[in-house]
Specification:
Elements: E1 3-8, E2 14-18, E3 37-39, H1 53-57, H2 64-88
Antiparallel strand pairs: 1-2, 1-3
Length: about 90
């Protein structure tokens, strides 16, 4: 069930309510009793969880995977060079 935020135009009272989509809108302010209670337009709040594309591709930022590949390739090349030198000498 979504959470809707309402504000009274008369007294300024504001609160969130958990309602079904099929329920009628609230119109009477619980604070002052006037019929000036209106639903506000707010941003949806949700979080993607699990092992999807979001968690694996964009969670840590874009630059880190490129840096780790460069570090790993450099270390691997050094080990290969040392191994070649040991075989020659």
């Amino acid at each position: 069930m979504p959470i809707y935020e309402y504000r009274c135009a008369a007294c300024g009272f504001q609160n969130e309510y958990l309602q079904k989509v099929s329920e009628p809108l609230l119109t009477v302010c619980p604070e002052c009793g006037k019929e000036t209670f209106k639903k506000l337009l707010t941003a949806a709040g949700f979080q993607l969880k699990g092992s999807g594309w979001y968690a694996t591709d964009f969670k840590g930022g874009g630059a880190k995977p490129a840096e780790s590949k460069t570090d790993g390739a450099g270390k691997g090349d050094d080990k290969a060079d040392k191994g070649d030198k040991a075989d020659r000498g």
